[in-house]
Amino acid sequence: MSYTPETLQLLAPDGTRVVSDATEAYLPYVDALTEQQLREFYRTMRVIRRFDIEAGNLQRQGQLALWIPSLGQEAAQVGSGFAARAHDHIFPAYREHAVGHIRGLDVVQIIKMLRGLTHGGWNPAETGNFHLYTLVIGSQSLHATGYAMGVRFDGLVGTGDPEKDTAVLVYFGDGATSQGDVNEAFVFAQSYQTPQVFFLQNNHWAISVPVRVQSRTPLFHRPRGFGIPSQQIDGNDVLMSYAATAASLDAARAGEGPQFIEALTYRMGAHTTSDDPTKYRDDDELHYWQERDPIARFEAYLRGLGESEAFFTEVAEEAEQFAAEARARTLALEPPSAESMFAHVYSEPHPVMDAQRQALADFEASFEGGA
């Protein structure tokens, strides 16, 4: 299942601008972007792709248990990630590395989690309201909807104050749309008119199950049955991703209720490093999407605007340095202390945790030589 007549697009695969009546309403969002913002879109996509590849290499070399690649989905993530305001809240699935990076997450935190060195991830208050990765498929849609209900109960919607009005952005994949959690989230979101945007990254494969098997109709039609406005965009077009998400977030903050975006993209790598996509995917399909690579497309666009060769060289060097630093920091990681397992079970000191901490200390001390 690929592009449809309703797919919104601002950049063609060759990097040229697409003009159509369907996207006219989004042009003000794109026209307002500065040259520096456009450069940052490209820089983030290139840097995160290089990091992503390096993290996969580290897993193959035994440095972490698993890696979840985002190769090919950079435009969907970077465009939507930059569309959110600082006080918005973002609930990812588990491959939104670019979005986390945009929000201030140290990407080595992702490596630490998948290396088994943390007890869940990071503190969203310290990562630009970027919440924890969720490995239970689709459950983050309910977390986001519950949070968005709270935002509405707190009166942080429709005030007209851009520093106050808040939206929630939740990411999930095409496979998650087959889960009950996502559909239940639609029910509550529409019932409570939550200020949130459901952002579906349709990368065409739920591990080895193609989207055409999951759904006989385009996935963006589903939320319409719940009364949620929806649209389908070219997820490999960073400008379209940015503009559609910015517009949807504006509508959500204004009190217009939940919005839904289906971003058509492609998972060019494996589902995770435990997966072998050559067993279920053919080369023709992969080649089709490689020709629509989101980074190559945007680079062609920037070159058409007159961007200098020096800029692209600088970004390539920055990406290499970023990946090298991530590798060095990964190799230097040490196991957490046993004490850490008791630290954040409860928000306040708790006698049960104190007792368990002491029991462990006594047990270790019982061995010859002490702990």
UniProtKB/TrEMBL annotation:
Any Gene Ontology biological process: branched-chain amino acid catabolic process
Cofactor(s) listed: thiamine diphosphate
Ranges where the Dehydrogenase E1 component domain occurs: 43-306
The keyword Glycoprotein is assigned to this record: no
Enzyme Commission designation: 1.2.4.4
Catalyzed reactions per annotation: N(6)-[(R)-lipoyl]-L-lysyl-[protein] + 3-methyl-2-oxobutanoate + H(+) = N(6)-[(R)-S(8)-2-methylpropanoyldihydrolipoyl]-L-lysyl-[protein] + CO2
GO molecular function, one term: magnesium ion binding
InterPro entries, alphabetized: Alpha-ketoacid_DH_E1_comp (IPR050771), DH_E1 (IPR001017), THDP-binding (IPR029061)
Keywords: Oxidoreductase, Pyruvate, Thiamine pyrophosphate
Function summary: The branched-chain alpha-keto dehydrogenase complex catalyzes the overall conversion of alpha-keto acids to acyl-CoA and CO(2). It contains multiple copies of three enzymatic components: branched-chain alpha-keto acid decarboxylase (E1), lipoamide acyltransferase (E2) and lipoamide dehydrogenase (E3).
Family: Belongs to the BCKDHA family.
The name this protein goes by in its record: 2-oxoisovalerate dehydrogenase subunit alpha
Species the sequence originates in: Microcella frigidaquae
